[in-house]
Amino acid sequence: MSIIAKWVSDLGGFAQKRQLVRLGATDASLTAAVRSGAVLRARNGWYATVDQRAPEFMAVRIGGRLTGLSAVRAAGGWVLERNGPLHVSVPRNAARLRSPRNRRVALTARYKHGVIVHWDDADIRDAGSATAVGLQDALLRVIADEDIETAVAALDWALHTARIELSDLDRILARLPTRYQYLRNWVDPACESLPESLSRTRLRLLGHHVASQAELSTAERVDLVIDGTVGLETDGEEFHWDRFLADRLKDIQILREGLIPIRLPAKVVFYNWPLAVAAIRAALPLRANFGNSGSCGEPCGARSPVPRVPRAERLALARGS
Asked: Most buried among 66, 107, 181, 294, using CB within 10 Å?
C-alpha cells in the first residue's frame, strides 16, 4: 500500500487534498497515487480508497453527503428498498455538482442520474462525517420524505440499536410540523428486525391491535400478538438451520398458551404481504375453539383505535388491503 493510500484509509477512506498535504503529500505524489490505482479521485480535491460504486463515494463525487434513506441504509439501518434513489445533502450555496458516476459530467435538473438533491442549511454541516450527515438529520429527512412504514422501520432500528434515544426522537419530531407527532406512538425500541417492524405497522394500519414482544410463560417472547389471537413470528432474511428446532418448539409453546402460531419468512413480509394478511385473517376466527384467553395478548377480537395518521402517510395500507 502506498503512503498516500494509507493516509486516506486512516482518515476513513476519504480525504481532502489539504488534509493529505498537511501529512506531507505533494501534487506529484497524489498524481502518481491516482495513476497507479492506489487511490481514486472522487472529485477535484477529494481522494478515496473505497469502491467507486459505494453510495458514500458517489455522494462525495456529487459534491455532498448521504442523507435520508441513503444515509440510514449505509449505516446498516432497516431499509427494504435497496435500489432507490440516492439522497444527497448539499449546502444551499453548492456549485459544480457532478454525476455520481463521472466527475466530468454535470448533475443538472434535467440529468439527475438517479439522485435526489437536498439543499440544506449550514447547521446540517455541523454533524456527521465527510460522507453522511448526522443520523438525526438523516432520520428527520426520512420522516419528512418517506411513507409511514419506512419511517417507523428506520426509527425502530435507530432506537433498538441505541443509536438514538426516545429523547432524541422527541427532539427530531420537535423540528417538524405537528402533523408528524403521531409517529411517537408508532415506534417500538423493543422491535428486533425489519420484517417485524413492517408487519407491526401494516397490521396497525389495518386496524388490528398489535402487542410487541409479548412474554410467554417460558420467558420467551413472541414478536407480535395480533388481536390477542395470533402469535406472529417473523423470520430473518437468512434461514439458520441451527434455529430450526428451537423455532418449532417455540411455535408449540405459543400454541400451548392459547395463541395461533404463524411464522412468516422475511421474503413473504417484504414481497408478498397480501399472502401474509390472508393467513392472519384466516387464523383469527380459530381462536374461538381455544376457549379463554391465553397468557399474553388481548381477548380474541380486541382492537385498539387506530391513531389518526395523515392521509399522505397511509401509503402502506394499500399493500395489505
From this structure: 66
